Amino acid sequence: MSGAVILQFETEAALSKAMAAAAEDKLKVIDAFTPYPPEEIEGGPDAAAHGVTVAITIGGLVAAALFYLLQWWSAARAYPFDSGGRPANSWPTFMLAPVEFGVFAAGLCGFVAWLVRCGLPQPHHPWFDVPGAERATQDRYFLALEAGEAAEAFARRQGETVAGRVEL
């Protein structure tokens, strides 16, 4: 189990300043909890490294390819039918259904990858035990740093009190 140190800030500017300082000190920012998405921290911590788009792409392409192979196998190998001398493997005829199924599978893979990435379903998260955590949806800004001596020292240097520590 890893832990996190939660810092509380009064303003958005203080949060963005602390995030920049944490990046400068090479501390791992786990998450930022804010009432709205601030422009200064657009995308959030590790936003580009979540892998949902990779799951969507791979899931859609693999599903479409497998569906095409199923159609080809059933029409050309398992149950060939000569219809007016046309070839049994007529790829233009086979393209519509695999594309539709690939789009459906891509959406489904993206949804499942998003659930896994978010850690859902999770009825209770340790974050809920942090005093004042409910204010993150109203008027406070919180920053979660990977726990350790460096994070504690960082909090003291920033002049912020540690709102809480959680085990993740």
Structure notes:
- The protein has 168 residues and is α+β, with helices and mostly antiparallel strands.
- It has two domains: 62 residues, Alpha-Beta Plaits (2-Layer Sandwich), CATH 3.30.70.260; 67 residues, no CATH class.
- The protein has a four-stranded antiparallel beta sheet, covered by helices on one side.
- Helix 2 runs antiparallel to helix 4.
- The mean pLDDT is 86.
Which key phrases capture this entry?
168 residues, alpha+beta, Alpha-Beta Plaits, four-stranded antiparallel β-sheet, 4 strands
Produce the secondary structure layout:
Elements: E1 3-9, H1 12-24, E2 29-33, H2 52-78, H3 91-94, H4 96-118, E3 141-146, H5 149-158, E4 162-167
Antiparallel strand pairs: 1-3, 1-4, 2-3
Helix pairs in contact: 2-4
